[in-house]
Amino acid sequence: MTKISAIIPVYNTELYIGECIESILNQSLVDFELILVNDGSTDNSLSIVNSYASSDGRIKVVDLKTNVGVGEARNKGIECAVGEFITFIDSDDVIKYYMFEKMYIHAKKTNSDIVLCDTGTLSSDGRQKLVWYKYIDGKATLETVYRNTQPTARIVSRKLIDKLNFRFLSGMGEGIFFELMMGANHISTIPEKMYIYISREGSLSTTPNANNNYKSMLNNKILRDRNSEYKEYFSFKMIEDLLQMIASSVKSSDKLLYIKASNELKKLNYKKNKYLSTFYKKEYSIHKYLVKVHILPLNYQIAKIIHKITS
Question: How far is CA 230 from CA 147, 182, 279, in A?
Fold first, then answer.
């Protein structure tokens, strides 16, 4: 059996996909497959990945004629993956040359369903940035899973994926990895920055987008409805998305989306959610917490004034 299947959704990243692929082909562990899912790219990304595939038999290219989003693109990769472990990599990131080997050996040694590693993050100007990261050894808890469900910088057992019939939700589909982590018997961590996330100006993760915040909120609503034992936690995740949606809509001067987010927050009776204080409050200074949670949602004009003062 192939040891690792690396799945990469590719959408209009012609400037970066080559470097990403090279970092995988240079792995010290050679028994892997690389599945490149072209998600309806309109630039030269497809030509680039086809060129690599023609010279290395470990590469599979899945060409989707229309853009379906990163969640569905990853699902297409899962469907044709044959590896003992699966890892997800973004097409504009790179990994250390020994990441596959070190994580695979650690997974076998510790009998882990999932192995995490720390993430190095660079902005496009070369400066290091802080990332969310929590060490886990054993069963996951809400505290260790919070801010730790991104699908990158980890390998996951194919047996666990099949056991849970795991698939990403449509669109961004990030938070659903929660179900894999809570379903794992053992998660272990290598506290080393082996996955290098490149934060590029204008990318999805660096550009405020209230509509994407709303889509994420809807995904968390789906997770809340099908994970009744974690209902309040996913209500909190919905609240978190809506608070970010408010901040994003203020930055983009979109009053209608601001009102939409405010109305949804009221329905959730958000200030009474216990995780807002146990998790969210711990991550911000008291000043930022009060502004983000209690002041910005009060009134659009007040929020605009605060944004103007603080930006």
Answer: 15, 11, 15
Do residue 233 and residue 183 come from a single domain? Answer: no
In a domain, 181, yes or no: yes
- At residue 289, what are phi and psi to the nearest 5 degrees? -60, -45
Quick check: is 79 in a domain? yes
pLDDT given for residue 173 in this prediction: 59
Domain membership flag for residue 295: yes
* Nearest-10 Cα torsion for 196, 127, 177, 21: -30
- pLDDT of 11 reads 96
Same domain? 225 vs 173: no
CA distance 202 to 127: 16
Q: Choose one of 199, 232, 259: the last residue of a domain.
A: 199
- Predicted pLDDT of residue 132: 66
Only one residue has tokens 């911000």, namely 284
204 within some domain: no
Stretches in the chain below the pLDDT threshold 70: 123-132, 171-175, 200-208
Burial of 24: CB neighbours in 10 Å, binned 0-12, 13-18, 19+: buried
Say what the pLDDT of residue 199 is: 77
Name the domain count of the chain: 2
What is residue 128's predicted lDDT score, i.e. its pLDDT? Answer: 62
Q: Residue 170 has what pLDDT? A: 80
Residue 22 shares a structural domain with residue 139: yes
Q: Which of 43, 29, 164, 47 is nearest to 107 (CA)?
A: 29
37 & 70 share domain: yes
- For 89, the domain range is 4-199
What is the C-alpha to C-alpha distance for residues 116 and 194, in angstroms, rounded to an integer? 10
pLDDT digits (tens, 9 = 90+) for 211-248: 999 999 999 999 999 999 999 999 999 999 999 999 99
